[in-house]
# Entry
Amino acid sequence: MLSLILHRLVFTFLVLVTNERLQRVVPQAPSEDPRYWQFVTDVPLKDALAARGILLGTAVRIEELRKDPRYRKHILEHFALLTPEYEGKMAYILPEPHKYRFAALDRLVAFAKKYNKRVRGHTLIWSGDLPRWFKEKEWKPEELRAFTEEYIFTVVSRYRGEIPYWDVVNEALDLAGDWDEDNPWYESLKEEYIPLAFHAAHRADPNALLFYNDFLIEGQGEKSDALYNRVKRWKEEGVPIHGIGFQCHLFLGFPDREEFLQNLKRFADLGLKIHLTEVDLPLAFGATPGKRLKQAILYRRLMDACLKVQGCEAFITWGSDDGHSWTGKSRWFSEPLLFSPSFTPKLPYFALLSAALEREGYSRLME
Ligand code: XIL
# Structure
């Protein structure tokens, strides 16, 4: 009998010691802490990310904010930063020569100020969404140089101190990393238009952070390598470029975790800010539970990298919910965003929340 009691005492002691040692070796996953689930249910993703230094943003159309109270409530509750999907582009701002149209962007900036949201200016120089008059004109180099400086100064100085980030140049490279030649600025000025645009924006608002924004530069490859080498040279030449916007219009299976992380890091190591600017991960060719799970894991992969990279300060989806996506109602590229059309948070939302709430090391759980 005595030996049985002794045996139980020794066993109990060993269990206690092992458990205590286990606790020290394997830090308690926050999700094992009951307060974690309270936090998950009570705290919006945007606040959990703000605590980690990341602004959660989305693209919006100003008119929809004005006319749809449910949508407006959803945006105010879940996002800290707003990007005008269309109203900040030349096709909208300057539909005819010399006739600037700022009303919509003014309304967005006023809305953001009222509700303490940031605005990301998108985009000053892009070969997309250009007004017809601009595309049809034969631009002499001196003419286009003068117009570009006047346009950028007019737009950026109007919102000086109100729009802290600008996509100065958008999508200037082709998939191979060469200059996109179907670009009026490149046709007339060659690559000189890019430093010109950044210097003009910097003169207009010396405190704004100026970005180069593009797609399919998330992984390492021809296009991102070419961009890296060009940005490195621009920085050495004193071009006021402060950050890179990685659009992240991605499909399932991309990017490779480590490749994406190392790619962001090499740009950050140049002293650049990193914004994930147009994130959407559509389910290609129909939705299945397996694709939805993989989508959530890829969203988390993007956020894990952003959390790890010094200077990654914004995670912006291109649309707030599946009912407000530029992919439209396509069944071929469906369900790309964090919320359903009825503004219900989906699996990707919780994947990002778990990333925001968990300490370094536990993110591997989602490997
Ligand atoms: C898209 C908008 O979502 C569409 O509504 C518009 O018709 C075309 O432009 N990369 C960009 C964005 O930088 O400006 C584009 O937005 C999507 C691709």
Summary: The CA atoms of residues 88 and 122 lie 5 Å apart. The mean pLDDT is 90. The pocket of XIL is lined by residues 85-86, 128-129, 170, 247, 278, 326 (CB under 6 Å). The longest helix spans residues 2-25.
